[in-house]
Oxidized purine nucleoside triphosphate hydrolase (Natrinema pellirubrum), 166 residues
Amino acid sequence: MIEATLCFPLREGGDADEEVLLIEKRRGLGEGWYNGPGGKCEPGETPRECAVRETEEEVGLEVTDLEKAGELTFLLDGEAHTFCHVYRSRSFEGEPTSSEEAYPEWVPVDDVPYDRMWDDDHLWLPGVLEGNTVAGEFRFEGGEPLDEAAFVDHDLEWGVSLESRE
Ligand SMILES: Nc1ncnc2c1[nH]c(=O)n2[C@H]1C[C@H](O)[C@@H](COP(=O)(O)OP(=O)(O)OP(=O)(O)O)O1
């Protein structure tokens, strides 16, 4: 099973609206869709280290004080495919810049483009952006690649305790 991460930097935007940094993915899984910065963990790397590295590589932002916000399991045709650690952070340095992998964009949390994201994101990301914690299982069918499979159903648990976990 693939171990991966997503990181959602947050800031106060204009009119005190909160904004989240999303990326438009330029290649690989989920190409053309919006998501948080993130990607696969490397051997020997903790998920937290992975989220920091991927955010720096993809958008040039140095995030610190990551708060664990979710653990998501994506199943493909009944088999566990990807286990994804989700983080929020309000502490970062630098200005988001485009990379070969991603175009970054600050988006008001009330205006996240769920119609241009993975089909499951609208189920868990609003709660994560509100400060909640979540554990979820999301079932896809139709074979590889995961981003061409059909999202069929899910289970979600809110308010889970994650802080003791990486
Ligand atoms: N269903 C769903 N919703 C939201 N986000 C995701 C999924 N499935 C996923 O895999 N993801 C996330 C988890 C990861 O952050 C990325 C996929 O990983 P990534 O490493 O970016 O994938 P590639 O581009 O193929 O690989 P490398 O860049 O690491 O070579 O999507």
